[in-house]
Each structure stands twice: as structure tokens, then as C-alpha cells.
Amino acid sequence: MKNMFQEKPELKNNKSSILYVIKQDWKQVRFLSKDEKNIKEVAMEVLKSNRNFIKELDETLRDDEDIIFLAIRQNGLFLEYASDRLKQRKDIVSLAVKQNVHALQFVEESLKTYAMYYTNNPKKFLYYKEEEKNNMEFCLSFVKKNSKLFSFD
Q1: Contact 52, 28 (CB under 8 A)
Q2: Amino acid 63: pLDDT
Q3: 4 burial level (CB within 10 Å; 0-12, 13-18, 19+)
Q4: Number of structural domains, the chain?
Q5: Which of 3, 88, 97, 142 has the smallest C-beta neighbourhood within 10 Å, fewest atoms?
């Protein structure tokens, strides 16, 4: 792969030219410095093509709601990389859980009941507290409320 920034160093002179290159070929991000990768617009553009890029972002961008919304729309499990502040937001938590029930593992205990409302996936049972899972009445109630999920027609 050609390093467009090495061929034309002037492309690194400003945010708009960096963004122009990234829009042409997001893989050029590998030739950027950490600071350049953490320009919000650059990060947003790369995330559209490479959702795993969220793992490389610094704490500031992990606390940016636009970045986190973009990431969890692609994969709810990326809630893991959201800042603690954003993990407290019901809109972010519910979107993540709707997208992937296993995002519940990254939801604060105080929001789990709220978040579980947003998925019909029976795997949410895995994320209930042990005392609830060991309670016969709770289990029967869960199966009754989710009976359509357990049909084997």
C-alpha cells in the first residue's frame, strides 16, 4: 500500500486534507500519528469502514457521544469502549443492548433492568443476578413472559 502522506507530505498540513485522504482510502490511517488519528472527523470517517478502530481511540473520543453512537450502531459490544459517563446514559445503553444483547455485560448494574427491557433476546437471562436466576418464581415468570421466544415450531 502506498503511503499517500509520504508521497505528498503537504497532505498532513491540515485536518481537511487528512480527511480528504481518509475518505479516499481509510487504510491510510495507519500512516497517521496518534494525535491525527484522534481528530474527531477522521475517527468518524474511519469508523464507518473499520468499526474496530474504536479500540485505538483515546479517552476524549471515547467520551464523545457521536463517536460512541456510530460505534454501537455497528456493534453493541462496543459499549465496552465508551467512557463511564456515557455508559450511564440510557439512550446509549438501550441502543447497545438492542443491537447486541451481550452488551448487557458492559451495563452498570443500576441500569441493567432498564436495559433488559430493550431486547427480546432470551439470552438476556444470562445477565440477571444469580439470586434471580435461582428463584423459581422469577424463572417461571421469565419463561411465561417470553414464551414465544421458546417455541420450537
Answers
A1: no
A2: 98
A3: middle
A4: 1
A5: 3
Structural domain including 25 reads 4-150
Query: Which has more confidence, 11 or 55?
Result: 55
Q: What is the 3 state secondary structure string of the chain?
A: CCCHHHHCHHHHCCHHHHHHHHHHCHHHHHHCCHHHHCCHHHHHHHHHHCHHHHHHCCHHHHCCHHHHHHHHHHCHHHHHHCCHHHHCCHHHHHHHHHHCHHHHHHCCHHHHHHHHCCCCCHHHHHHCCHHHHCCHHHHHHHHHHCHHHHCCC
CA distances (Å), 10 to each of 6, 7, 15, 107, 116, in order? 9, 9, 11, 44, 50
**Residue 45, amino acid:** E
Convert the pLDDT of each residue in 116-133 to its tens digit. 777 777 777 777 777 877
Residue 152 has pLDDT above 70, yes or no: no
Judge if pTM exceeds 0.85. Answer: no
